UniProtKB/TrEMBL annotation, chains A, B:
It holds the Pfam family polyprenyl_synt. Its cofactor is Mg(2+). Belongs to the FPP/GGPP synthase family. Keywords: Magnesium, Metal-binding, Transferase. The lineage of its organism: Bacteria, Pseudomonadati, Pseudomonadota, Alphaproteobacteria, Acetobacterales. It comes from the Bacteria. InterPro entries: Isoprenoid_synthase_dom_sf, Polyprenyl_synt, Polyprenyl_synt_CS. Gene3D superfamilies: Farnesyl Diphosphate Synthase. Signal peptide: none annotated. This is Polyprenyl synthetase family protein.
């Protein structure tokens, strides 16, 4: 991960000073670097060993982080967010223009690095995931304020906006390690299910987080009229009076009043909507863990020392859900 | 070009209906498709012949148009433009969110198509051009409202925002045609110089176009405080009173008053700033034309019937400047 961080800093350089300045703002804000970590971990599970200058997985990991960072920059512009991980967002500091353009730069740079790396399968995975990501974001936009959104549709949205890149990160790790097809598919499934669990928990925390502890703001999704599983669960379980409340506040989020968030939190508690969401997250986390059991016997036989890491990734999946307890 | 248009429409499809809807809005608005045309023309000059299902240059041409369209969508959001080619801009119709995200989608889709095409050199050219494009846009942003911008810096900006993709379009055409290095470089130089001429004329027209004839609005750059060659030429040739006018209006474009555009046009006429700009454009157009003389003898000997097309491209370069007369 230290090599990956160095790669990220080295490859975001540009003769145009504002680009590394803005990018550094996000790097300094200190994300979890979960996606590049997944590339590295998946590569190791699949038997990749660094030797000499063959550190391809580090470059691929940096690209995945660039693609993720580009979408964060664009999301914050699109949502007019003023905060990101508790600090002023890049658009709040540098303006919307710079954020859109530096996002574009990072995306282009990612494909420059991947081209130099030269693996068409890795590029196929990451360009497809990037297109799916954009589709997921557009789909999320069209479900906003829309309480007729089905749970299936919601799950499609979070697959696109989050799980697709998690899946791609794990799959590229497997490809770099030249894993067999079964192991590659197992790791892809792990990433996809982990991403679903991760986003479900994120959506639950938006109505449940202890802000001081988790650095998350409660109510952002509510204020934006986003249709997430906690809202859908509470809405579907509500009586007509409660459904009218959700319609008023989610379908016309700009006309929310003082006390609305408090009532939303009460209704979510009353209908056990957080439990519903967390149960769904746990299903995905368990599927992620189970997927790792599908790593091929051949792969396991060759990489005898990967067992502790595989176990750790199984624990990560479960911890993803338990962190919210 | 008809095959290319079909490819563009086919490849912008998505299960998320808003994506082709928004993309079709831009396609319907009917751009000149100059960049994909350059891919096809360069490929032909370099000896590419379509036969059977080997229509790779068409796919590459569509990708170049996708990359260009993505930047147009983002530019209009960034500049808050309400019009594009005389019609309501995509952001005016579909909103900023959708425009940013569909731009991201088109960019990702371009690299998906290129990955399937499988040419690493083509991908290297287009990913580098995309990064340069974003750098050019950021650079333009930092020169906005800044009258200390040098002419060299301005030329760097227009290379990044326009000429780099023109150069890349021509170079990828040559690569698809498996041209020798000399021919590839000749076509790249043609594109780069043509792009410079094209942008210089565009910047001149912003202060000179007969709106009814060219569908261009006069004064957009002025209202935005953009520092282009017509402004720099008029500013540098102006007396202290005139320089004070430019400082007030360009450095604080939001405080422009009624009559300011008219005075700007008068000062530009008085200082022959349009002539200065057009003379520079003509230099580049002539360099573009001359670059085509560097197409290798080997290439010319093999492709005896490319001579009329090569001559046409030379004429295009000169016409790029003469269209403004």
């Amino acid at each position: 991960m230290m090599a990956c961080n160095r790669e990220i800093v080295a490859r975001m350089q540009s003769d145009v000073p504002l680009i590394p300045q803005l990018a550094a703002h996000l790097v300094a804000a200190g994300g979890k670097r979960l996606r590049p970590l997944l590339v590295l971990a998946a590569a190791r599970v699949a038997g990749y060993r660094e030797h000499g200058d063959d550190m391809r997985h580090v470059g691929v990991a940096a690209c995945v982080e660039f693609i993720h960072t580009a979408t964060l920059l664009h999301d914050d512009v699109v949502d007019n967010s003023q905060l990101r991980r508790g600090l002023a967002s890049a658009n709040a500091v540098f303006g919307n223009k710079a954020s859109v353009l530096v996002g574009d730069f990072l995306f282009a740079r990612a494909f420059q690095i991947l081209t130099a790396d030269g693996s068409l399968p890795v590029m196929a995975i990451l360009s497809a995931a990037s297109a799916t990501l954009a589709e997921g974001e557009v789909m999320q936009m069209t479900t906003q304020n829309d309480l007729t959104t089905t749970v299936d549709r919601y799950l499609q949205v979070i697959y696109g906006k989050t799980a697709a890149l998690f899946a791609a990160a794990c799959e590229t790790g497997a490809v770099v390690a030249k894993a067999d097809d079964q192991t590659r598919e197992a790791l892809r499934q792990y990433g996809a299910n982990l991403g679903m669990a991760f986003q479900l928990v994120d959506d639950a925390l938006d109505y449940a987080a202890d802000q001081a502890v988790l650095g998350k703001t409660v109510g952002d999704d509510f204020y934006e009229g986003k249709v997430t599983l906690p809202v859908l669960a509470a809405y579907h379980a509500g009586d007509s009076d409660e459904q009218a409340f959700w319609k008023r506040t989610i379908e016309n989020n700009e006309e929310q009043q003082d006390g609305d968030l408090e009532r939303a939190l009460d209704l979510i508690a009353k209908t056990n909507a957080i439990d519903v969401t967390m149960a769904k997250a746990r299903e995905y986390a368990e599927a992620a863990s189970a997927a790792l059991d599908q790593v091929s016997d051949t792969c396991r036989a060759v990489n005898v020392d990967m067992e502790p890491l595989r176990q750790l990734l199984k624990d990560v999946a479960i911890y993803t859900v338990d962190r919210a307890r």
